[in-house]
Amino acid sequence: MKDKKAEQKAAKQKHREQLKAQRRKEPSLERPVAELTEKPSILIVCEGENTEPSYFNQFRITSAKVKSVGEGYNTISLVNRALALSQQGNYDQVWCVFDKDDFNENDFNSAIQIAVANNFGIAYSNQSFEYWLILHFNDHQGGGMHRDSYNDKINEHLKPFKVTYDGNGTKLIEEDFFGLLDGIDDKTSRKRAELAIDRAERNYNHFDHTNPAREESSTTVFRLVRELLKYVE
Questions:
Q1: HSE-up of residue 68 (Cα within 13 Å, Cβ side)
Q2: Which of 1, 8, 43, 61 allows an S-S link to 91, with CB 3.0 to 4.6 Å?
């Protein structure tokens, strides 16, 4: 009797060990815990209260948190405002967007220097932001073009699409205009934003950057857009 009980006990123990061994071989149904990564946070502080924010806010960005604000400040005061805003939040990148317009050369150049000293990105335009928009349609080579001509130039390119830009009024980049900026160029079959980046970078590299206030026509908005495109869906 004792031998039979001992045999049964041994058989049960062997069965339990076999089950344990089988479980070790089977793939686990437990899913690995996903590693959560914080989205990078980008602050864009714009001189203009309409044009630039209405442009940057239309990027379909999913893998970063972007805040674009139009502050109505210019050159040095804009950079100082960016510094104040950056201290109110935890931002991975801070960008200053401003134009040369008719502002003092020293103020414009100093604004760039102050921004660099604070590790801010700089997206300036000489003469104004609309030059960046023109480069989406026109392979301008960087020679002088007065900003008074920008609105007509833009609308000349928009006319075939029955779209307009009110550069002398609201200065808002509406959805239909942004759709063209973000669209495909018929002649090259390339995205217009890519063309604008290439053209702007080429024109920028024509200068030695010892006096950005006199480097007309040029823009570094291509740097900011290139960065934002990394996070577009």
A1: 21
A2: 43
d(CA 138, CA 153): 9
- Report cis status (omega within 30 of 0) of the bond before 217: yes
Measured from the Cβ of residue 92, the count of other Cβ atoms closer than 10 Å reads: 12
- Degrees (nearest 5) of the Cα angle 66, 70, 71? 125
pLDDT in tens, 150-173: 999 999 999 999 999 999 999 999
The residues with which 125 forms a beta bridge, in sequence order, are 99, 219
Please choose, from the candidates 202, 208, 201, 205, the residue with its C-alpha nearest in 3D space to the C-alpha of residue 224: 201
Across-strand partners of 219?
Answer: 125
Q: Of 107, 209, 212, 102, nearest to 147 (Cα)?
A: 102
Q: Distance between CA 124 and CA 95 in Å, rounded?
A: 10
Angstrom distance (rounded) from CA 215 to CA 209: 7
Question: Three-state DSSP class for 84?
Answer: helix
Per-residue pLDDT reduced to its tens digit, 67-126: 999 999 999 999 999 999 999 999 999 999 999 999 999 999 999 999 999 999 999 999
Distance CA 171, CA 128 (A): 12
Q: Is the dihedral of CA 134, 137, 138, 139 positive or negative?
A: positive
- Report d(CA 170, CA 50) in Å as an integer: 7
